[in-house]
């Protein structure tokens, strides 16, 4: 597909017209509906507390306000880096900066801001895509009047970016990992869009925006920020060469501007980026660029990660991972179809190429299978940009931004950790290359018959719809089944929905259930197992059974706890206890003003042991959801929807009872009494009926 000659126009694209902005906003609002539905698990409560890894940035902001970099002990969990006896984080500082004004006023929103932050990042991403799309449109069609096609493309662009790409998948979990990916890609695309405007019109303010946004991307997620900086570096290097090479003074990578001012501004940008990154690393880890993995809590406690690091010369990055990651992210059969809701899922396993030790192989789809419109559009767009460069077409101003953004895309392939979320780093590259193909195709549509145009339009719409369906389904499965610590309530909701859809939709099937008298010791991944007497329903994940529905007999408890007033430091109040004077254990709570922390007390031949979790907010009367499972030996406690304690070290005893403990020692009797909310086995009975 050849670019068409652009209409002559004044240097540089004009501001995005109001009708185009409105059309883009309509597309964004439409896409935010499924995004927010998935992000909030259907509640649309954007300030709801998140159970895990959602309060790191609030804790960092509070540390800054207290004049330090280290975070309070326990906040980071396995992600902590212990440096000189203090816990540090490696997460970027931009999401933290956004929280400082809120944290300075109140701590009531700690752990509640991640969802809003992710929505904000999505809006910035959509705005950058709109700006980039308008610059591409100008390069192809010049100053022609805005028509219906422009409005449709603007709305479709924001809709596809938010709801038809990996962005929708990220809504499946509101935590810092997905937040970092969204902000990194958003700022990177802002930088690339501003760089294109500069290359098209010679605007120094646009170049300044590009530099500032690249630094913000670097401090949100370094891998994708590096791509934006590479693009700026390519422009700066080309300008520097052009100053001393007569044959390059035509500057084929830009349409206007250039010269010493550009080189100087880009030099300042590079200095600020490298200097600020080094300064943050020095403050945290005592060295400017290296991430000291040996100091991470997870590395210290995980033999598996230690073995992976030993096998890869102490690093999780390297070319040895590329054959496997390239195959997984680019294969055409990256998803699996089925008759059980949501009908689209991850394919089984990741095929490792060669004798390579990977840290993690998460369920992962591929770009062609989950986002086919952008994947195919990117291939076509690369051809368009190659022709534009050769022919001197105005679209050539996208060439260096495309090459720079490719650096982030290629960087994903070198990580010894396969995860669908990492394809977010490729998103800026996909957009920079797809949009030229889209606008050239629209401009050339008049050369073809109506039937051809209709068929092409239907095909594009079908690919976009598939992207929405695939990423929505994958995000739902990640949220309610595949993520590392899915709650029993969410797993149960998914299975319940699967049964309901099977009852309502012809051809759909309920999940297949294996009925057993007792839970098998051997776990089969993906198996749904129900106990004959409906005490519990379990799902197989890796080497463990995860609860889908548990009654009290299977270790599932819902407690309403009126916390004691005037509790003294060190007093432990029992929530659940089992055993007798010869050997007992208990779930306990230590209470202080507005906070509580959950612990586990147990006896063994070595004596009595106490393991306490982190402090979490509490109400005067809290709902405590607890798993105290004697078969899976799982312990998991949520206080008012906040994850407060978890582990796999329950020592089964007879006779679990609420509000008391026979462990003795520091454990008190909780007064007034804990109220038990009885659990039913409705889901189990529905599964029996559906089978």
From TrEMBL:
- Is Nucleotide-binding there in the keyword field? no
Give the highest taxon in the source lineage.
Answer: Bacteria
- Record-annotated membrane-spanning stretches: 20-40, 118-139, 151-171, 180-200, 220-241, 262-283, 371-389, 398-420, 426-442, 454-478
Q: Which UniProt keywords apply?
A: Membrane, Transmembrane, Transmembrane helix
Answer whether the UniProt record assigns the keyword Membrane to this protein: yes
The protein's name in its UniProt record: Glycosyltransferase RgtA/B/C/D-like domain-containing protein
Native source organism of the sequence = Actinomarinicola tropica
